[in-house]
Amino acid sequence: MPYKMVVLDLDDTLLRDDLTISSRTRDTLLKAQKQGVIVVLASGRPTGAMRRYAEELELARHGGWILSFNGAVITECATGGIIFEQSLSPELVHEIHDLAASHGANILSYVDNTIVTPKADEWTAVEHRLTGMEVVEVADFKGAICGPTVKAIVLHEPSRLREVADKIRPEVEGRISMAISKPFFLEFTDNGIDKRHSLARLLAHLGIDPLHVVAIGDGQNDAGMIRFAGLGISMENGAAEVRAIADHVTASNMKDGVALAVERFVLGAG
Q1: Which of 27, 22, 40 has the alpha carbon at shortest distance from 202?
Q2: Which of 27, 111, 210, 264 measures 20 to 30 Å from 246, CA to CA?
Q3: For 78-125, how does the pLDDT look when each residue is reduced to its tens digit (9 = 90+)?
Q4: 67, 186 in Cβ contact below 8 A?
């Protein structure tokens, strides 16, 4: 089947562990775009933390898109225009804060291009490394979140985060979307917001059938788009539940897994 679009998670998928794109992967994606394939970056990261990768892959030149904040914002690279955005109300972020605190977990969100948190710790430092955004420790987190925000993240030790997620889920189900993106990140967006639903919105906007889409990812927050796409691919380093539902498992992010998948299924290199 001819695929018209490739949708890529960033961390632990497109990016190597040093947060760079390998030359083979970059060249493969440029080749695919020159053949008319649309490349979409889909990540939990803020939009600004994804732009440099979009620029490196020349997405603006080739009609590419960014799905940021786990799909809460859809941005056209060529124009910078936003065709969709949906935020959490401050009241919902305050509720998430209280739930996190009740289970001994930390929280962060975003205000004016900064990361705000009640306590800067090793996990907020990871978000700083991924996004390049300044971490600001605030004594009154609820007071700092006084307007809508696209995402909040609850942070805890990997050994405890799934337990915390299981306890919080019944409290928010049907009102707030939540997914584990990394072993220490439990991400919250407005109800109905995730990569799968935003991908569906983008495809409807472009008039592309999901059957003509390849989606590649590694984390729980990628599972929906992997199921939804005509061809869903997990990285070898992906979570066990993601590998289990994927149509194909490619090599790891450190072994050009994205390039291998695109070469085989999109460019027809075998």
Answers
A1: 40
A2: 27
A3: 999 999 999 999 999 999 999 999 999 999 999 999 999 999 999 999
A4: no
198-211 residue pLDDT tens:
999 999 999 999 99
Crossing angle (nearest 10°) for helices 158-172 and 90-102: 130
And the tokens for 89? 């109300």
How deeply is 188 buried, as exposed, middle or buried, from its count of CB atoms within 10 A (0-12, 13-18, 19+)?
buried
pLDDT at 175 over 80: yes
| β-pair type (176-182, 185-190) | antiparallel
For the chain, give the mean pLDDT. 96
Bridge partners, residue 75, by sequence? 66, 82
Residue 256: strand, helix, or coil: coil
Taking CB atoms within 8 Å and a gap of at least 24, the contacts of 88-92 are 88/148, 88/149, 88/150, 88/151, 88/152, 88/176, 88/188, 88/189, 88/190, 89/148, 90/142, 90/145, 90/146, 90/147, 90/148, 90/149, 92/175, 92/176, 92/188, 92/190
Would the pTM of this model clear 0.70, i.e. be above it? yes
Tell me the one-letter amino acid at 183.
Answer: P
